[in-house]
Write a structure and sequence with these properties.
This protein is mainly α. About 60% of the residues lie in helices and about 0% in strands. The radius of gyration is 22 Å and the shape is globular.
């Protein structure tokens, strides 16, 4: 009888694990408390549509507009995500600086001249992403889009100026009080 009771307890623990984690790997809380409780379908759609969601957030979409936007926004503001962006950016810059001597994971094709000419600006962006403090969601979405996706000027720039403009836009957008206008454009009645 005791063996049956033990087996029933194990089944209860397994069921609890399944609720806590679809994989059932460990007895952990059901979800990170920071993450909104959303269905698995919404989380999968957010992962699948990350580039489109980054575009929307970079254009100023309200992250509370949909579950997918909210999930993507939570991912973007996560310090671990920023650290990963910094590592990737520094890896790209160091690879170009070392003239391709350091290995890059995967089949990444880099536009060496735009990266080499914008090395200080790229390192400034890495520094800004590394710093603690407030980072605007729009800026984080722009940085994520520029660093992670191969259609960005970091990988597909026709020239150094195209990449420089994107870096400057991203740095400006990372500031929490950025109004979408370059610093040298007059504002209102000044």
């Amino acid at each position: 009888m005791r063996a049956g009771a033990s087996m029933g307890a194990d089944a209860h623990v397994s069921a609890r694990r399944w609720v806590a984690s679809p994989i059932g790997a460990a007895e952990t809380p059901a979800q990170d408390e920071r993450m909104p409780r959303t269905p698995l379908r919404a989380r999968l759609r957010a992962a699948w549509r990350a580039a489109d969601l980054d575009d929307a957030l970079a254009d100023g979409a309200d992250p509370l507009e949909s579950d997918e936007l909210a999930l993507r926004a939570m991912k973007l503001v996560d310090p671990a995500n920023r650290a990963e962006l910094v590592r990737t950016l520094e890896l790209v810059v160091n690879h170009v600086s070392a003239r391709g001597l350091s290995p890059l994971p995967g089949p990444t094709i880099l536009r060496r001249q735009p990266i080499a000419r914008n090395r200080p600006e790229l390192l400034t962006l890495a520094w800004r992403l590394r710093t603690d403090g407030v980072h605007s969601l729009r800026g984080l979405a722009m940085a994520d889009r520029m660093i992670r996706y191969v259609d960005s000027p970091l990988y597909m720039a026709l020239g150094p100026l195209q990449l420089r403009h994107r870096i400057e836009e991203t740095l400006a957008a990372l500031e929490p009080d950025w109004d979408g206008q370059p610093a040298d454009v007059p504002h209102g009645d000044r």
